[in-house]
Amino acid sequence: MTTWKEPSLETVDPEIARLIHEEELREARTIRLIASENYASRAVLEASGSCLTNKYSEGYPHKRYYEGQQSIDPIEELAQNRLKALFGSEHANVQPYSGSPANLAVYLAFCKPGDPIMGLGLPAGGHLTHGWGVSITGMFFKSHAYGVRKDDHMIDMDQVRALAKEHRPRVIWCGGTAYARTWDFPAFREICNEVGALMIADIAHIAGLVAGGAHPSPVGLADVVTSTTHKTLRGPRGGMIMAKKEHAAAIDKAVFPGLQGGPHNHTTAAIAVAAHEAGKPEFKQYAKAIVDNAKALAAAMTERGFKLITGGTDNHLILADLTPQNVSGKIAAKALDRAGLVLNYNSVPFDTRKPFDPSGIRLGTPSITSRGMGREEMVKIADWMARVIAKHDDPATIDAVRGEVEETCKKFPAPGIPVV
Ligand code: DSN
Question: Is 194 among the catalytic positions?
Fold first, then answer.
């Protein structure tokens, strides 16, 4: 056991210590509904907050540019091997700093500036790095976004095929940040084969569901699979890339030395811990519970008059259009935050409002499932949301809901938070 001989953070920097403590209290006493967030376990946090942050290790295990890698090499190999086993992948690179750098490495590995690419458009629920105009990926490549159908808001595979045939993209991305339905990976593979495109699956949002068998896996179909490690997977803030063997060298070279310098070894260790936790049988139950909770929450919201995009959900995520409630997503999100229900405002497909003040809200169940909440709490959450949105400028309603939220939070301690 190590005994500290140095002063604590609280002694050295009480201001930062206080702010961290306040964040712990906030995370413990509010209901986290942001679909892309989660609670990492204490074990993940310990690995992430370790001395590994001190070490430089440019290169890959056993091929480094610095000495002193006696612990770092096995840590990185454990992270790689655990992810490969968890997802059944031939190759894993755990060095991307997060999801966006992971995606940039894919472009660097396979595309030249000006190449045609395709991805789900941002307003339809895609990600900036899949070729949206304000992102470097939309500036350096010729992006042809596909979308969702106007009537049911499902991805239009006929449009994907037609655009792919017309533009012959180098890569086709599948994956998004606000799509509540199952990705048809086999259909994307078929289209990629027809036009000679590489299929790239970005599973950042659903990685934990894929690992736990609650969403079909693109591994084996996609040429490359990218992800963050901190969403449904419950790891540290980080990124990863999995690939077929034939693409391993190109991916590794693109990440380092193409795009990044030294890997964040503290994050690598925490990814290894998260992959270890996700390999346990109870993680399968967790993944299934995320989806069951999302479906229960969606049903309870629908009963209370919410208009859900696509009419419901197949995964961890719900996107609601608040036009029938006659309130913007931003006003609703801010009122809900005051009531202790934390989510984000979000554009809905074909939104007539601007992205900074859109019509919708996005929410998800990974975090509340990590706290052990179930069907009963989903109904309560839908109820609280309906009450707050109906009376978003009434402090008494907000305070009453906030009190009930805090009582419920006490019964479901947040993993990784050493308080209350
Ligand atoms: N910021 C992530 C999300 O909230 O979905 C995407 O990068």
Answer: no
Helix (H, G, I), strand (E, B) or coil at 23: helix
> Bridge partners of 199?
172
What are 173's strand-pairing partners? 200
Q: Please tell me the distance from the alpha carbon of residue 227 to that of residue 98, in angstroms, as a whole number.
A: 8
Residue 196 CA to ligand 1 center (angstroms) comes to 29
Active site residue 228: yes
The residue whose two tokens read 């074909």 is 350
CATH hierarchy code of domain 287-411: 3.90.1150.10
Give strand pairing partners of 172.
118, 199
The answer to whether 98 and 129 are in contact (CB under 8 A) is: no
Q: Is 60 annotated in the active site? A: no
Which residue has its alpha carbon closest to ligand 1 atom 6?
A: 177
58: which 2 tokens? 């440019």
The rounded Å distance from CA 26 to ligand 1 centre is 20
Backbone angles phi, psi at 408, to 5 degrees: -65, -40
Q: Which two tokens stand for residue 331?
A: 């006003």
CA torsion sign for 132, 134, 137, 139 is positive
Ligand 1, atom 5, lies closest to the CA of 177
pLDDT string in tens for the chain (420-residue length)? 578 899 999 999 999 999 999 999 999 999 999 999 999 999 999 999 999 999 999 999 999 999 999 999 999 999 999 999 999 999 999 999 999 999 999 999 999 999 999 999 999 999 999 999 999 999 999 999 999 999 999 999 999 999 999 999 999 999 999 999 999 999 999 999 999 999 999 999 999 999 999 999 999 999 999 999 999 999 999 999 999 999 999 999 999 999 999 999 999 999 999 999 999 999 999 999 999 999 999 999 999 999 999 999 999 999 999 999 999 999 999 999 999 999 999 999 999 999 999 999 999 999 999 999 999 999 999 999 999 999 999 999 999 999 999 999 999 999 999 875
Which one is the CATH code of 45-278: 3.40.640.10, 3.10.20.30, 3.40.50.720, 3.30.365.10?
Answer: 3.40.640.10
Find the catalytic residue in 56, 375, 383, 391.
Answer: 56
